[in-house]
Structure formats: structure tokens, C-alpha cells
Amino acid sequence: MLLNLMQNIGIFYYWTWFIWPFVFVIALVYAITSLVKDEKASMKPSIVASIVLLIILTGLSDLG
Q1: Per-residue pLDDT tens over the stretch 3-22
Q2: Which residue did the predictor score with more confidence, 59 or 64?
Q3: Are 58 and 13 in contact (CB under 8 A)?
Q4: What is the pLDDT of residue 28?
Q5: DSSP string of 28-55?
Q6: At what angle do helices 44-61 and 2-15 cross, to 10 degrees?
Q7: Pairwise CA distance, residues 3 & 15, whole Å
Q8: What's the CA gap between 29 and 13, in Å, rounded?
Q9: How far is C-alpha 12 from the chain's CA centre?
Q10: What pTM does this model have?
Q11: Residue 63 DSSP class
């Protein structure tokens, strides 16, 4: 079941590969800047960045 999910994420990545690097960098920069500025920063941008990184790595691992 998990391998089937990863395969579907990989297929989704193939069709939208050009979006994910930009989304990852923007989410990561926003997470870092919000952590530096505020003491009570939200972890939502960090979670978004980690999910986007999961999508990118899943898509790249299905290439082989």
C-alpha cells in the first residue's frame, strides 16, 4: 500500500516537476525567516517544506 502511494506521488511529481523546487525554497526561506523574527513562530511553513521535499525525493527515487 505504501509503495503504491509512493508510486502515485512519483507520477504526480512527473507532471508537476517544475513547481516543486520553487515551492520548497519559498517555504524553507519563509520558515527560517519566521523562526528568526518571532519567538512564537508557526511550524506550518516547515511542515510544508518537509512535505514538498518528500514529494521531490519520491519523484526522484522513481526514476531508477
Answers
A1: 888 888 888 888 999 999 99
A2: 59
A3: yes
A4: 95
A5: HHHHHHHHHH-SS--SHHHHHHHHHHHH
A6: 90
A7: 19
A8: 22
A9: 13
A10: 0.82
A11: T
